[in-house]
Amino acid sequence: MAELQGLGANLSEAEKAGVEIVAVSPDPNERSQKLAEGLRLGYRFLTDRDLAVTRRYGLVHAHAGPNGEDVPRPATVVLDRDGVVRWFSVTRNFQVRPDPDHVLRAVRAL
Amino acid sequence: MTVSTKLAALSVVIVIAAVAGYALLLRVVIVRNHPEGYVIAFALATALAALAVARARARRWPAWLALGLTSLLLVGGAWFNFVAARVPDTPTVLRVGERPPDFTLPDAAGREVSLADYRGKKPVVLVFYRGYW
After folding, report:
1. Which end of chain A, N or C, is less packed with Cβ atoms under 10 Å?
2. DSSP conformational letter for B8
3. Where are the alpha helices (DSSP H) in A1-98?
4. What is the CATH number of the domain that holds A72?
């Protein structure tokens, strides 16, 4: 959640209205949605329970979960209004996330 | 306090500060995105503890205790950061200038949301993340 909070904290109200932040994870997303609402962040949380979409995107880290299950590779993608990728980042170390400023720069460059 | 005991104490203070600092400042981008920082702090503390052992005359146990603690953290921290936390760089479908595959997934309220719903309307920041934790 750290990257999501960072992203939300750096967006102005106008930017929150002008861009949709869509967060995909295998977790049941009610808790995430509640947390985001508690932090007053306008995110859309989608559940990819069996990682089918994550897998299709090539973003599965095999057997890396606490119980040896597959987990997503943390990734951030900026899509323009036409749905075309303008910027993306896929982490090489799961402790590291893109700098929210870099994501925002990509959003503001659209 | 002997020089050896002071060095040993300093090494323990450094590892405690490194662990606490990393945990408390995880929200600060420069701290979070440089996890090798705690490994460097552990290495520095281990070097100081080794010096404490070398300088120890009579009471040797504080220096050895510090060396045991700091070297354990150094090995564990280096393994975690450079081995366990590495994410393999396998190919993805993401290409700048291309449209990624569309998908439909349920949101928190159970409504189906498609990536294509936003096309022609809004830019999207799509975030894949591991979960609540």
Report:
1. C
2. H
3. 2-10, 13-18, 30-38, 52-56
4. 3.40.30.10
Domain range for residue B59? 3-84
A48 closest CB neighbour out of B88, B93, B105: B105
Q: Which domain holds residue A83?
A: 2-108
C-alpha distances (whole Å) from B28 to each of A41, A59, A97 are 18, 26, 11
Q: How many Cα neighbours within 13 Å face the side chain of A60?
A: 15
Nearest-CA distance B66 → chain A (Å): 27
Q: Is the pLDDT of residue A10 over 80?
A: no
pLDDT of A13 > 60? The answer is yes
Contact B35, B22 (CB under 8 A): yes
Reported pTM:
0.83
Domain count of the fold of chain A: 1
C-beta atoms of B131 and A25 within 8 A? yes
